[in-house]
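Researcher: I'm preparing a figure for a lab meeting and need a structural model of a single chain. I don't have an experimental structure, so a prediction will have to do for now. The sequence is pasted below. Please return the structure as tokens so I can convert it later.
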Amino acid sequence: MKKRIVKTLTLMIYFWGCIWYDKKYLKGVNFNRSCFSIGWKWILRYWFGQKIIGYARDVPFPIPRGTTIVNPKNIIFDNNDMNNFHSNGCFYQATKGKIVIGSGTQIAPNCGLVTTNHDIYNIKKHAKGKNVIIGKDCWLGMNAILLPGVELGDHTIVGAGSIVTKSFLDGNCVICGNPAKIIKYLDKEKINEI
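Model: Understood. Here is the structure written out token by token.
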């Protein structure tokens, strides 16, 4: 009897999730077959506010109210890393460019990834957009901001509160400050590969 109830509940949550969200995002480690895995809990927790009240209706995967995503079609990420969109206060603005987040990357609360700024001569318009690309196994500390055109190589650690204005393509480093600069190189032999 208990098995049957769990199986029915699992099917109901899956069916409900497929109605409200894009099925291609309901995969990966967060959405395993258990009806009580974290991904299914996200669906149960956020669907009403997101799809009925409408605070992020256009986002095709579950996110909390504290996360802002502008133009989710331009955000490319590994489904296994959907937890990055559940860090409170994060701002993903992919209006005129793409945001690419490499697999294994961790994003702390209140981070901003911005693909376009306002035109300095007419602040009612946006300047030309540029992609923001983050390599694999990076870590963005709390309150870090990545500005348009920034590209981070694999294994780049961005210190909390840093504003990244230029690219660090080689990766394997710790960057920090405003504007961010390299403060330490990582020993490639010590990096824990996934």
